[in-house]
Amino acid sequence: MKNKTAVNTRKKVDHGIQKYLLTGVAATSVAIIFLIILFIFIESTEAISAIGPWEFISGTEWRPFNGSFGAFPIILGTILTTIGALIFAVPLGITSAIFLSEIASERTRNILKPVCEVFAGIPSIVYGFFGLMVIVPFIFNTFPNLAPAGFSWLAASILLGIMALPTIVSVSDDAMRSVPKSHREASVALGATHWETTRKVVIPAAFSGISAAVMLGMGRAIGETMAVVMVAGNAPNIPEPMWNVFEMIRTITSTLAKEVGEVTGLHLSALFLLALVLMAMLLLTNLTANLIMRNTKRKFETGQGMIEKHLPDNVKNVINMAKRPVMLSMAFVVVMMMASLFTDIIVSTLIAFACILFISTMPFISKRIRSLNRQRIAHLAMSASMIVVCAILFILIADITVKGIPALSWEFLTDVPRDMGRAGGILPAIVGTVQLIIGTALIALPLGILTGIYLAEFAKDNRFTKIVRSSIDILNGTPSIVFGLFGFALFVHYLGIGRTLIGGCIVLAFLILPVIIRTTEETVKAVPQELREASAAMGATKWETTAKVIVPAAMGGVVTGVILSLGRAAGETAPIMFVAAVGIKRHIEFSLFDTIMALPYYLYYLTEVPNSEEVRYGVALVLLMIVLSMFAIASMVRHHYSKKVRW
Amino acid sequence: MNQKTKMIIAVALTAVMCTGGTYMLTSGSGSDTTVLRLEGSTTVAPLMEKYAEIYEGYTNVRIEITPNGSQNGVDAANSGVANIGLSSRNAGHASHAGLTEIRIGVDTVVLIVGSGAGVTALTKTQVIGIYNGTITNWNQVGGENRLIVPVDRYEGSGTRSYFEESFASDGTSTLNINRNHASPAGGTGAVIGFVSSNPGAIAYVSLGSLVTSAEKGMAVALDMTNAGTGTAFSPITQLENYTLKRDLVLLVKGEPTGPVSVFISWILGTEGQKILEEAGYLPLAALS
Amino acid sequence: MVKIYENNNDGNVITIDSLNLWYGENQALIDVSMPVMKNKITALIGPSGCGKSTLIRCMNRMNDLVNGCRIEGSMKFRGDEIYEPGADVISLRKRIGMIFQKPNPFPMTIRDNITYGPKIHGVVENDELDEIVERSLKQAVLWEEVKDRLDKPAFSLSGGQQQRLCIARTLSINPEVILMDEPTSALDPIATAKIEDLAIELQKEYTVVIVTHNMQQAARISDNTGFMYLGKMIEFDETEKIFNKPSDELTERYITGRFG
């Protein structure tokens, strides 16, 4: 009798303590997130009061040394490069996704899908490097009169588009794949061709998922830093005319990257204000995206969107009739604007007319082709897209591998840099990257995994949880350069400890924290209810169930998420470039409060060192190999666990 | 492999990783090393790198250099983030106020042009015209028919402020219209790389940063008289007559003491100056 | 096996002769022969895995969607081989429609569900489409229940209504044959009864083939019944004969519930 009571009491106490512990951890994560957001707010107040928000956003001169802080060209630069990136990536990405999901055989898909996912992990500095070495010269060789420097809005958009492609392809593919087979069968049974089914049933049904993919790609483009820094030319201009893609341009992120070294009070505050504007833009994008997605879904299911419902019938008729002419005229204007960059007004107008003619006759021509032939053409076009995407990625990897291999040698991997990096090796950079990975893991993993478990198993549906989730989402969408800005202001500016390894680890940990929390939560939630029920039926407490049944079952997904996040952290430049990294270290150090060399930052640094091209490629190759092997390991872990656990 | 074995392996692995990790993070660089942090001009930084490589062989001092522009060098010296700030603005420059200046040598600023420009000499007026946008094609200055791509530096660059002041017309700074000017990411190195690969480019860099003969071959002769009627002197062959020269300056807050002082004395000593000269700069002794 | 179709050759819409089907290595249909007679309801019964769904899916070539499916033998629709190389699958499916086990309306409005088929096959005029919508829904005995909410999502209907919507959708393109693959197994008894009544109505204008694991259903509504077991057509005859005086012992054992 006495024993029984003891057992019961002990269990209750365990349960209580552990639950509070978890809640405490979750609260810490939230506190951190809040701190960062608050910090950014506070830091920008000086600029807000000194410059004035309206003057800041609308001013057209960004010359901080002269005291003018007009951010309009920079904000416009972010918008324009993103639009360009989407124009490039969305058609290509969605059509490739259609190929992957609807046309490719199982075997092809099993090869291509992982390939796409791996490419999503290529560090942005490597993309930027590729842009600098290949895209920029391509542009100034192809358009020597329009873009003699090669650096341009066009170069930035192409690069950003390439970087957004894997995301768009992967998420759209998932969305289309999850359209139930029954819908496809119903369509086919009515005599539709495969292509008609894809176009009229699958794509509309997957539309919200596809929109999500585009939004994710867009978020990536808006927040991208290093790639833009390397190829955009970075002149804070408003292009003239505004659609001139060959002009040099600057984005918010590249401004932050180039100017954060400044310690001057007002200038630094202005940069924080820029960061705030950036985050506001991202928030706006997300909200608009959600609205569009909901409206489209409603339209698909009920025949009319939210606005349409309230319009009288005759207005709706007018709108319907006007749709076609309006879109045709918009197309006309766009083609004319683009053509006018190359030739004079008359020729541009003619070209525009020709295009419009072609577009308007398309539906008629298309009706006259047999549906099977239409399908063949469509399938061909989708395959071509996929081929283009693969070709781009292949060229990138090939370029870096082929030019990087000659640089690799035993000396390269084990020696310290000499002669400003042109000779010797890159060992301190490799060591530094490893140190960052370890340190980041030690901070982010306990915090992130425990918070994720808390959210999945213990969080109630109350206000606190909502706040936690919202803050995680905000942090998740924050560009990495903002983390670098935060870290710089905190560690270098306020605490005065300068650049340190620990600072870099903390910043990177904050960067990947939201992802780890989310992945853990999702994986834990995905563990089937039956396991929980079975464990509870045997008299286990909630904590015991979680620790002994749920977590081991979710381990595969959690480990995968962790490796992927750390791989991403290893490739980041922007967060560490002001907080931890230094260009050249001639000695290996193992100290938390020392600076480090890191591979991604070293690559960036080397672009400033003349005659170091071969070394740069070598560094890019080593970085690529490390990051890609981490992704490969993560894939293998995921595969292993998904086979082992069958429920 | 049963559960128990797996458990043992997992624990052992974790233990190894933890100890290894802690070692990697904290074993420290030894208490007898000092770190000197240098920050600033991308012109002076490569020279300091050369110094560091040799100097670190003599002592336990570790030297870390961050090339991010002369203005950053000034700010870092002022705020104490760096022990020594690097500046390529002339001694006595307004921004150096409040800091101790130590001249260590003299640098030549040259103009380099791309392989397709077709000119070997320019006058001061022509350079002004190129950079303020009134001259847009190389054939307007006696070269090939090709668009000029002027390359600028970021605002914090010491080389840029020096350039703007040297090519001021009527005592004011030249108007640099950013529109057409490329600003490749990065400092001197990136600029040289850009001019090497873009036939129509023109840029201003420190002579000391041109290493290979191919790079040196990109430099043009300059006639710096206001009327443009003087001789154009080549910085490579007629260095004594070439007029665009500016100081290489180390900035320290207060008087240099301890390891900072030792390091600076070494730089100003025979060996230090010899290294400077071999790197393509002019030692203090060479000028009055 | 009784070959009653020899007498009604021109009354057969579909004629199956010695049909064999493999999914990869696995043979799912062995030497199956049977007729589908015009304006009659033909039921296919048998225990799980006997091949009745596979057989019915051959008729509108839905098996084409399965990788590794191979066919030998003859299946003729109106005298033409269905599986002839170069056969026009699209128009075949226009003339042979299918209702599935689980109602699968498109995630669109009721109206859009019905107009999907006609639009694919070339109908563009709005008046014509409206007419088709009304006709099909009336034939499926659904018109009265939904005529005021044609623009509501199809998912707002109950299970039984959704299945009738799917039938209306199939009827919208005017097929000759309607295949039903266990159309009521996911529905409650009242909805089931409605579907069964509907099938009997449809039989007047269309030919119906229905797969069911509910013997009583087959007995209630069909004219001919085929009993299948392990991929073979064991017995095919008029429904009355199958249920009252089956010729094959296996059939008798199944009918009387001794296995299945």
Q: Whole-number average pLDDT of chain C? A: 89
CATH class of the largest domain in chain B: Alpha Beta
- Measured as a percent range, the helix fraction of chain C is 25-40%
- Write the CATH fold name of the largest domain in chain B: D-Maltodextrin-Binding Protein, domain 2
SS elements, strand count of chain B:
10
> Shape of chain B from CA axes?
globular
* CATH level-1 class of chain C: Alpha Beta
H/I helix tally of chain B: 9
Averaging pLDDT over every residue of chain B, what do you get?
Answer: 81
Number of helices of chain C: 10
β-strand amount of chain C: 25-35%
Contiguous uncertain segments of 5+ residues of chain B: none
CATH homologous superfamily identity of the largest domain in chain B: Periplasmic binding protein-like II
What is the percent of helical residues of chain B? 25-40%
| Largest sheet data of chain B | 8 strands, mixed
Q: Indicate the CATH topology of chain C.
A: Rossmann fold
Short description:
Chain B is built from 9 helices and 10 strands.
How would you sum up this structure, described in words?
The complex is a heterotrimer of chains A (647), B (288) and C (260). Helices cover 76% and strands 1% of the residues of chain A. Chain A has three domains: 264 residues, MetI-like (MetI-like fold), CATH 1.10.3720; 287 residues, MetI-like (MetI-like fold, Orthogonal Bundle), CATH 1.10.3720; 50 residues, no CATH class. In chain A, a hairpin with a 4-residue loop joins strand 3 and strand 4. Chain A has a two-stranded antiparallel sheet with strand order 1-2. A two-stranded antiparallel ribbon of chain A has the order 3-4. In chain B, 34% of the residues lie in helices and 19% in strands. Chain B is globular and about 85 Å long. Chain B has 288 residues and is of the alpha/beta class. The longest helix of chain B has 24 residues. Chain B is built from nine helices and ten strands. In chain B, strands 1, 2, 3, 4, 6, 7, 9 and 10 form an eight-stranded mixed beta sheet that branches. Chain C has 260 residues and is of the alpha/beta class. Chain C has a single domain, classed as Rossmann fold. Chain C is 35% helix and 26% strand. In chain C, helix 3 packs across helix 4. Chain C starts with 11 loop residues before the first strand and ends in a 5-residue tail after the last helix. The N terminus of chain C is likely disordered. Classes of the chains: A mainly alpha (647), B alpha/beta (288), C alpha/beta (260).
